[in-house]
Amino acid sequence: MWRYDKKLIYPVRVSKPDPMSASIIISQLGGPHGEMGAATRYLQQRYSMPYGEIIGVLTDIGTEELAHIEMISALVYQLTRNLSEEDIEKGGYAPYFVDHTTGVFPQAASGFPFTTAELAVSGDTFADLHEDMAAEQKARLSYDNILRLVDDPDVKDAIRFLREREIVHFQRFGEAVRIAQDKVNARNFYAFNPSFDTKAANRIESCK
Amino acid sequence: METLDNRRTETRQESAGCSAAMTCEEKKALLREIRVCTFALIEANLFLDTHPDDMKAMAFYREHMAKLERLKKQWEDCTGERFSADGSRWNWVDTPWPWQSHM
């Protein structure tokens, strides 16, 4: 279960509206490398993961991604506050505005709505963990590209925090791969799929 | 291969407020109490969102917050299992996950 903490994981304080930046940054909410996909991917990979340490990593990083969803949403919200009709047209925000006004809808910068088609829950320990490492690198590169495109130091500060978290998460997933490798056949990591081929993974604890 | 299961048996009985090891049924009953208290807090929290001036609800909420703290401490002292962390080893990663247990 989860409980809500009424604070952002890192402060978002944007004073200048900028719909152009908002329409780029929104990709990290509902785009192919976005935080909504990250949270969904990690939290849903937990059930087929056989090792406690790695379920812990997936739980904690998945939970942190929920907090990142809120940060990106706060950025989009603050960048589109108090817009005039002229701001909307000049900032290229009209195609978004026509359907969503200034609500925060999970979509890619291209306008493509959030989809789980861009994430994987393969049910294979090593395939899932390598997917996760790649996902962290893809999020990192999207943040790098956002940093190339936006100028506002307040926006950059929040984006830099998120970019650094991707690097830390990549590191933890790398360690998760090593932990999993230590638990399987050292001569052939792929001799079996520990998510599926062992009974221990499917055990339910109960009173005798 | 080291599995989750053989490490799960190594839970320790430490310190305060717990004379003997809890039976499985006692653990189940205490967990139920924690769950009931947590759910009461969720309901009170939600009720207070739409009734922010209700002092009776506020008192109920505070009382159950304190009760939950006590129950969680009892669980941790008596079972050696942590909801979050442990002293010598982060045994949060060793105990069963909610979907691995019928408790």
Explain this structure to me?
The complex is a heterodimer of chains A (208) and B (103). Chain A is an all-alpha fold. Chain A has one domain (19-197): Ferritin, core subunit, four-helix bundle (Ferritin). Chain A has eight helices and no strands. In chain A, helix 1 (19-25) packs antiparallel against helix 4 (52-79), helix 3 (35-45) runs antiparallel to helix 4 (52-79) and helix 7 (125-149) packs antiparallel against helix 8. In chain A, 37% of the residues are buried. Chain B has a domain at 34-82. Helix content of chain B is 55%, strand content 0%. Chain B has three helices and no strands. The longest helix of chain B has 27 residues, at 24-50. Chain A binds chain B through residues 1, 46-47, 50-53, 55-56, 183-184, 198, 200, 203-208, and chain B through 1-5, 7-8, 24-25, 28, 38, 90, 92-103.
Compose a concise summary of this entry:
The complex is a heterodimer of chains A (208) and B (103). Chain A is mainly α. Helix content of chain A is 57%, strand content 0%.
Please tag this protein with its features.
heterodimer; A: 208 residues; mainly alpha; Ferritin; 8 helices; 0% strand; elongated; B: 103 residues; 3 helices; disordered N terminus
Q: Work out the strand percent of chain A.
A: under 5%
Morphology call of chain A: elongated
From the coordinates shown, what is the CATH architecture of chain A? Up-down Bundle
Run of helices and strands of chain B: HHH
The helix/strand class of chain A is mainly alpha
Compute the separation of the termini of chain B in Å: 26 Å
- The share of residues in extended strands of chain B comes to under 5%
CATH topology of chain A: Ferritin
Q: Which range best describes the helical content of chain A: under 10%, 10-25%, 25-40%, 40-55%, 55-70% or over 70%?
A: 55-70%
CATH class of chain A: Mainly Alpha
Most extensive chain-chain interface: A-B, 19 and 24 residues
| Structural class category of chain B | mainly alpha
Helical coverage of chain B, percent range = 55-70%
Shape call of chain B: elongated
The overall pLDDT of chain A, averaged over residues, is 94
Assigned CATH superfamily of chain A: Ferritin, core subunit, four-helix bundle
Largest sheet of chain B: none
Using the CA coordinates, give the radius of gyration of chain A: 19 Å
Weakly predicted, low-confidence segments of chain B: 1-16
Radius of gyration of chain B: 17 Å
Uncertain segments of chain A are: none
